[in-house]
C-alpha cells in the first residue's frame, strides 16, 4: 500500500513538473498586454509639435519678401483638375501637339452613384484608418535644438521626387558677434529661399551649396525659416544627406525622397452591422480531395451563405465545383501548394481574405466576425484562429521568429513555440510571428508577401519567414474551426486518399533540396534552430 502511495505521489510530482514546463514554453515573453488599437495624435506627438513651433514664434515680427518663382513650387495640398485648353483644331492636331487631358474622377463616379454622400463618408473613414495604420513614430518631425549651436531636423523631413519643400526647424543659437554665417550643402537637390529677409546675405540660391550670413542673429534665423530644398535627381526611394554647418561646427540630417504610397481602400459598404460577404473572401487549395472540399463548402454555407469561395485546383482530372458565389480556377496538374495559394489570393477583391485547408469544417465557433473586428480595430495585418482535431485537441501553432546576424556566411533564424504578448482589449488574443493554417489577413498585405511557388508539397512557416518584418500577426484562440478526421486504417483508404497521401507526404530528395535551397540561398540563412 505504501509503495503504491509513493508511486502515485511520484506520478503527481512528475505531472506537475511537465505542466509547469509546458506552461513556461507557451507563455509570452511579456506578461503585460499591449494596446494595438488605432490611435490618433498622442500627447507626446502634440508636445513635440509645440516644441518645434515655439522657437519660430520669436521671429514673427521680422518682415520678409516672398520669392514667387520658388514659393510657387511648394506643395499646397490644393491640386486642381485642369487640362490643356485646345487653342486650335486641325487634322491630327492631337498627334502633332499632344495636350494634357483632365478627368474629374469624383464628379464622374459620384454623379452615377445612388448614395454619393454615403460613399464619401465610407471613403473618408477608410482613408483615416489607413493613415493611422501606416503612420510611424519614425516619420514624425523631430528637431534637434541648438546644442551645437546648430538646430536642425533629425527625422521626419520628406520630399516627393523632383518636388520642393521648406526645410523645417533650421536655426542658429550663438553669442552675439559681428557676423553670423551658416553653410548648407545638398547632394541630390538644390537649395533656395522661398522669401528673403532684409539684412541677410544669401549666396548660392538654386545651387547645391548655399551660404547665409548676417550681423543680426534674429534676422538670420528668420531667413532660415524659408530655406527650400528641391530634389533634382529622380529616385523613387532614397534620401539626401544635407550638411548644415558654421565655421566651427558641422551637422548632418537626411531628407527622405520618395513617392507617397497610394492608399488602397476597399469600398465594402460596412454599415452599422458587419457585412461579412462584402468584407471577406474564403480561399482554399484542393488536390485529390473533392469529398472533403464539398464538406467544407457545405459547412461554410451553413453559416455564411453569401461569402465568395475561391478554389485553386491542380487535380489531373478536375471536377466542376458548382454553387452560388464559388469561383474555381484550374491549374496545371500537381502545380503545388504555394502556387495554388498565390492563384487563389490573386483573385480576391475584398478587404480581407480567409485561408482554410480543404479538409476543414466550419462550426458555430468559427466566428469570422471576431477576426474582422480585431483587424478593423488594431494594427494587425493577419490573425490566426484555432484548429480542433477529432480527438478534441485544439491547436493554435503559435511561434515566435527572430533572426540573428551571422556575418558573411549568412544569418541564423530561431523559431520557438509561444507568443510575444497579449493584446489589450481582446481576451484570448496574442501577438506572434507564425500561426496556424487557418487565418484571416488584409488582402493587400498577403499579396505583398506572396507564397514561394517552388514549395509544391510542403510549406507553412516559409510564408511567415518571408513575411517577417512586413506582417504584424496575431492569434485568437476563441475562433475555432474543425479538422476532418485523419485517422484511417491502412486498408480502408480510397484510391484518391492513397494518391493524396503519396503526393502530400513524399519525402523525396528533390523536395528536401528545394527546402534547403530556399532557406540557404533565398533567405540567406546558414542556421535554423527550432523548438
Structural summary, described in words:
The chain is of the alpha+beta class. It has two domains: 43-73 and 137-258, no CATH class; 276-530, Spore Coat Polysaccharide Biosynthesis Protein SpsA, Chain A (Alpha-Beta Complex), CATH 3.90.550.10. It contains 15 helices and 28 strands. The strands form six sheets. Strands 15, 16, 17, 18, 19, 20, 21, 24, 25, 26 and 27 form an eleven-stranded mixed β-sheet that branches. A six-stranded mixed β-sheet has the order 4-14-13-7-11-10, covered by helices on one side. Strands 2-3-6 form a three-stranded antiparallel β-sheet. A hairpin with a 4-residue loop joins strand 13 (237-245) and strand 14 (250-258).
Structural class: alpha+beta
- Beta-strand fraction estimate: 25-35%
- Number of domain modules: 2
Helix content estimate: 25-40%
* CATH topology value of the largest domain: Spore Coat Polysaccharide Biosynthesis Protein SpsA, Chain A
Number of strands: 28
**N- and C-termini, Cα separation:** 41 Å
CATH architecture of the largest domain: Alpha-Beta Complex
**Overall residue-averaged pLDDT value:** 83
Helical run tally:
15
CATH class type of the largest domain: Alpha Beta
Work out the radius of gyration.
31 Å
CATH level-four homologous superfamily name of the largest domain: Spore Coat Polysaccharide Biosynthesis Protein SpsA, Chain A
Strand count, sense and barrel status of the largest sheet are: 11 strands, mixed
Cα shape: elongated
- Poorly predicted runs are 5-9, 11-26
Amino acid at each position: 500500500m505504501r509503495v503504491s502511495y509513493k508511486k502515485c505521489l511520484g506520478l503527481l510530482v512528475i505531472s506537475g513538473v511537465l505542466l509547469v514546463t509546458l506552461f513556461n514554453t507557451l507563455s509570452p515573453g511579456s506578461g503585460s498586454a499591449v494596446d494595438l488599437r488605432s490611435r490618433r495624435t498622442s500627447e507626446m506627438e502634440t508636445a513635440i509639435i509645440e516644441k518645434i513651433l515655439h522657437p519660430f514664434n520669436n521671429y514673427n515680427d521680422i518682415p520678409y519678401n516672398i520669392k514667387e518663382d520658388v514659393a510657387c513650387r511648394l506643395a499646397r495640398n490644393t491640386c486642381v483638375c485642369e487640362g490643356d485648353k485646345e487653342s486650335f483644331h486641325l487634322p491630327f492636331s492631337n498627334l502633332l501637339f499632344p495636350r494634357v487631358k483632365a478627368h474629374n474622377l469624383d464628379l464622374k463616379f459620384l454623379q452615377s452613384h445612388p448614395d454619393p454622400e454615403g460613399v464619401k463618408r465610407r471613403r473618408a473613414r477608410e482613408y483615416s484608418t489607413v493613415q493611422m495604420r501606416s503612420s510611424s513614430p519614425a516619420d514624425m518631425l523631430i528637431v534637434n535644438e541648438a546644442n551645437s549651436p546648430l538646430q536642425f531636423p533629425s527625422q521626419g523631413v520628406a520630399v516627393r521626387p523632383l518636388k520642393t519643400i521648406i526645410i523645417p526647424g533650421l536655426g542658429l543659437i550663438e553669442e552675439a558677434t559681428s557676423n553670423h554665417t551658416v553653410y548648407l550643402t545638398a547632394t541630390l537637390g538644390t537649395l533656395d529661399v522661398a522669401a528673403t529677409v532684409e539684412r541677410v546675405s544669401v549666396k548660392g540660391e538654386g545651387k547645391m551649396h548655399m551660404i547665409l550670413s548676417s550681423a543680426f542673429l534674429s534676422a538670420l534665423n528668420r531667413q532660415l525659416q524659408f530655406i527650400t530644398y528641391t530634389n533634382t535627381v529622380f529616385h523613387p526611394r532614397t534620401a539626401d544627406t544635407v550638411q548644415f554647418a558654421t565655421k566651427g561646427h558641422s551637422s548632418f540630417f537626411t531628407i527622405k525622397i520618395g513617392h507617397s504610397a497610394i492608399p488602397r481602400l476597399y469600398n465594402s459598404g460596412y454599415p452599422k452591422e458587419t457585412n461579412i460577404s462584402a468584407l471577406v473572401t474564403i480561399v482554399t487549395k484542393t488536390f485529390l480531395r473533392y469529398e472533403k472540399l464539398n464538406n467544407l463548402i457545405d459547412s461554410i454555407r451553413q453559416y455564411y451563405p453569401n461569402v465568395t469561395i475561391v478554389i485553386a485546383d491542380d487535380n489531373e482530372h478536375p471536377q466542376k465545383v458548382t454553387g452560388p458565389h464559388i469561383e474555381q480556377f484550374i491549374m496545371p496538374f500537381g502545380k503545388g501548394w504555394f502556387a495554388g495559394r498565390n492563384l487563389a489570393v490573386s483573385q480576391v477583391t475584398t478587404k480581407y481574405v480567409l485561408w482554410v485547408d480543404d479538409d476543414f469544417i466550419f462550426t458555430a465557433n468559427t466566428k469570422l466576425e471576431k477576426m474582422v473586428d480585431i483587424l478593423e480595430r488594431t494594427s494587425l495585418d493577419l490573425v490566426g484562429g484555432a484548429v480542433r482535431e477529432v480527438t478534441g485537441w485544439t491547436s493554435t501553432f503559435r511561434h515566435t521568429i527572430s533572426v540573428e546576424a551571422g556575418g558573411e556566411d549568412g544569418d541564423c533564424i530561431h523559431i520557438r513555440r509561444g507568443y510575444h504578448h497579449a493584446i489589450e482589449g481582446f481576451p484570448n488574443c496574442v501577438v506572434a510571428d507564425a500561426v496556424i493554417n487557418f487565418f484571416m489577413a488584409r488582402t493587400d498585405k498577403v499579396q505583398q508577401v506572396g507564397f514561394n511557388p517552388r514549395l509544391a508539397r510542403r510549406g507553412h512557416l516559409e510564408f511567415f519567414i518571408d513575411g517577417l518584418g512586413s506582417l504584424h500577426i496575431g492569434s485568437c484562440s476563441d475562433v475555432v474551426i474543425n479538422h476532418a478526421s485523419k485517422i484511417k486504417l491502412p486498408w480502408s483508404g480510397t484510391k484518391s486518399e492513397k494518391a493524396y497521401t503519396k503526393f502530400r507526404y513524399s519525402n523525396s530528395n528533390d523536395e528536401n533540396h528545394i527546402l534547403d535551397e530556399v532557406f540557404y540561398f533565398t533567405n540567406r540563412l546558414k542556421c535554423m534552430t527550432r523548438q
